[in-house]
Specification:
The chain is of the alpha/beta class. α3 links the parallel β3 and β4. The radius of gyration is 21 Å and the shape is elongated. α8 packs across α9. The protein contains 10 helices and 6 strands. 52% of the residues lie in helices and 13% in strands.
């Protein structure tokens, strides 16, 4: 089994290398950022990648997003997210793609090397392995993404879904356009939409409305 390690903390990365070597597991390489990880997957795919969720430059969710891209480059690539944090949005997408061969373990809760290596082997063989704490946090996430919206925010979102621009929404609700902008900002925040192009976020909000 060839394992690719994606971890920006040098001490942790070297520690993983030593632990895997002691367990007679080959380390195919160590990478500290998403870019070099994806290049390695394209040129010399491993049997499994162990990926930290938070990588440079922003240390938010680059690792899990890179894992999703890696599985596009190499469909079915086994991936173990190995982190101190539970990143819900993209992790849910990775874990629910229906192809298996994925895992999510929390660094602070792994106490035995043999169990860790066993998890790697099972994921490499196509299984899904998740820490119970990860399952708990994903399950407690609200099932209805619209539940936190106020009645007025729901009205604004419904009009967005009907294709109305902010000015048109303001006219229909007899409020100022500035008030509509505030409602739209609250909707984006409450639906946990990623930071980015407002047009793209608007589409995501509408999809959440239609799905709810």
């Amino acid at each position: 089994m060839r394992v690719l390690i994606v971890e920006d903390n040098v001490i942790l990365a070297e520690g993983l290398k030593l632990l895997l070597a002691a367990a007679e597991v080959e380390v195919a390489g160590v990478h500290a950022d998403a870019g070099s990880f994806l290049e390695a997957v394209s040129s010399d795919p491993p049997d499994i990648a162990v990926v930290d969720v938070r990588l440079p430059p922003s240390f938010r969710d680059e690792g899990v997003r890179a894992a999703l891209r890696a599985r596009e480059v190499r469909p079915g690539l086994p991936v173990l997210l190995f982190s101190q944090y539970v990143e819900e949005t993209y992790a849910r997408e990775l874990l629910s793609d229906g192809r298996g061969a994925v895992g999510y373990l929390l660094k602070d809760r792994v106490s035995r090397v043999d169990e860790f290596v066993d998890s790697l082997r099972r994921i490499a063989d196509g299984a899904t392995v998740m820490d119970p704490e990860v399952v708990s946090q994903l399950m407690t996430r609200r099932h209805d993404p619209l539940a936190a919206l106020t009645p007025r925010e729901r009205e604004v979102l419904a009009l967005m879904a009907s294709g109305y621009a902010n000015g048109e929404i303001a006219e229909r609700l007899v409020v100022t356009e500035r008030a509509v902008l505030k409602h739209v900002g609250n909707i984006f925040a409450k639906l946990d939409l990623p930071v980015g192009d407002s047009g793209h976020r608007r589409v995501l909000a509408v999809l959440a409305h239609l799905g709810g």
